[in-house]
Design a protein that fits this description.
There is one protein chain. With about 180 residues, the chain is α+β, with helices and mostly antiparallel strands. About 40% of the residues lie in helices and about 10% in strands. It contains five helices and six strands. The protein has helices spanning about 15-20, 50-70, 125-145, 150-170, 170-175; strands at about 35, 40-45, 100, 105, 110-115, 115-120. The strands form three sheets. A two-stranded antiparallel ribbon has the order 1-2. A two-stranded antiparallel sheet has the order 3-4. Strands 5-6 form a two-stranded antiparallel ribbon. A hairpin with a 2-residue loop joins β5 (about 110-115) and β6.
């Protein structure tokens, strides 16, 4: 297999090499916070004034385009979304316009971030619905296997497939929902 650029998909060193390749991205982007995990990059831009927000977005997108083009990387605009966070009192009607390399990036009301479904109003309903469906499937699997597998294996499956899903974002749920002040 001849590779002229990049690394093979799902290779052992692929993720490590990618992380080394993009390590300088955050220092090249001003007026934004970058949250990077594996090959996901989230760009957080904030401003209390809509006019200044759009100006900041345009400047950050230009910096991103420059960095990505200089490093021969592409953004999959189909898998990319723009989300404007707001609360009920300050519902904003004007959605920011984002174009990356002359491609429009769609505004969205919800998006998955590290397997947590986040909405523009920062509410949990969509994520809880998704989680409930997944947990129902896992519960059915555990119940079906109960008669065939040992209790020890059933316990391992429970902690691996069910309990881990419940624990995954409990920190964000309790501290982000205002339950704990």
């Amino acid at each position: 297999m001849e590779i002229n650029q990049g690394v093979p998909q799902d290779s052992v060193l692929g993720l490590l090499l990618f992380l080394l390749y993009i390590h300088d991205l955050p220092v090249n982007i001003q007026d934004a916070n970058l949250v990077m995990f594996a090959d996901d990059i989230n760009v957080l831009i904030s401003d209390s004034d809509e006019r200044f927000l759009q100006t900041k977005i345009d400047r950050v997108v230009a910096e991103l385009e420059t960095w990505f083009n200089r490093n021969d990387l592409m953004i999959n605009t189909v898998k990319t979304g723009v989300m404007l966070f707001h609360n009920r009192q300050t519902h904003v009607l004007v959605k920011p316009l984002v174009t990356f390399n002359n491609m429009n990036v769609d505004n969205t009301a919800e998006i998955k971030f590290l397997d947590i479904l986040i909405t523009d109003k920062l509410k949990w309903h969509s994520h809880v619905q998704l989680l409930a469906g997944t947990l129902c499937k896992v519960a059915f699997m555990v119940k079906s296997l109960k008669e065939v597998l040992s209790p020890n294996l059933i316990q391992n499956i429970y902690f691996t497939k069910f309990h881990s899903l419940l624990q995954f974002c409990i920190f964000f749920f309790f501290f982000g929902s205002g339950i704990w002040g």
